[in-house]
TrEMBL record:
SMART domains: RHOD (SM00450). InterPro entries: Rhodanese-like_dom, Rhodanese-like_dom_sf, Thiosulphate_STrfase_CS. Pfam families: Rhodanese. CDD domains: RHOD. This is Rhodanese domain-containing protein. It comes from the Bacteria. GO terms for molecular function: thiosulfate-cyanide sulfurtransferase activity. It comes from Tolypothrix tenuis PCC 7101.
Length: 172
């Protein structure tokens, strides 16, 4: 099953890359047409009415449709509440040396760069919360897992810095 998901993700990446390539080629052709003829009609098949390439427009529509806060736990209090009620798996995606210097109690360490090799440690049927030091790496981890059909994963943007600044317990 996980092998099938990996193949699906790889195929999705190939298709998106191909679509992006076509979009770039179409934009280049449109640019050449515009230069030689002076303008392109608004109904040009290379773009939607707003002027965005169709792939970019589809991605934009998808991103707009994501409810605010859907992939995130924005406050330390909200994470503590989730930890008390649903016991999520906390995944610290920082490097091992960062994790050893201090982490949220109960968190496991799976560095972002090793995430794909450690999918067996991440359940897909119970809550998972990812964090790092500032939010950047954890957001990449959340996106990666969502692409791999994990719909139970959220990020904690306050990350370790926010947890520490709020005076919460730190494990070593």
């Amino acid at each position: 099953m996980k092998f099938q998901k990996s193949i699906q993700t790889l195929l999705l990446a190939i298709v998106l890359s191909f679509c992006l390539f076509l979009s770039i080629q179409q934009n280049l052709m449109a640019s050449e047409i515009s230069t030689s003829s002076g303008s392109i009609a608004e109904t040009d098949i290379l773009s939607d009415p707003k002027g965005f390439p169709k792939l970019e427009s589809a991605i934009d529509q998808y991103l707009i449709s994501i409810p605010s806060g859907y992939y995130t736990i924005a406050k330390v209090e909200d994470l503590k509440s989730l930890m008390a009620s649903r016991q999520p798996l906390l995944v610290d995606v920082r490097e091992p040396s960062e994790y050893r210097s201090g982490h949220i109690p109960g968190a496991i360490n799976i560095p972002l760069r090793t995430l794909a090799r450690n999918l067996s440690k991440i359940p897909n049927d119970s809550p998972v919360v990812m964090y790092c030091s500032t939010g950047y790496r954890s957001s990449m981890g959340v996106m990666t897992l969502h692409l791999l059909n994990y719909d139970n994963v959220q990020g904690f943007p306050p990350s370790f810095a926010g947890w520490k600044a709020s005076g919460e317990e730190i494990a070593k």
